[in-house]
Specification:
With 54 residues, the protein is an all-alpha fold. It has three helices and no strands. The chain is 56% helix and 0% strand.
């Protein structure tokens, strides 16, 4: 099926957002950059939760 993988980003919301942000900033996207973006995103999510929810 032509273009079957094209909608992968749409089927997994948020999965490619960090990669997209890094490319907009003009940084090379490598494992270290992705790890930092994922860690920062997780920290923001945890900071928004009420104590005791996690």
């Amino acid at each position: 099926m032509p273009g079957a993988g094209r909608n992968q980003a749409e089927t997994r919301p948020g999965h490619f957002e960090g990669r997209h942000d890094a490319q907009e900033l003009g940084q090379p996207v490598d494992g270290a950059v992705m790890k930092r973006l994922e860690r920062d995103a997780l920290a923001r999510i945890l900071a928004c939760q009420e104590p005791g929810e996690a």
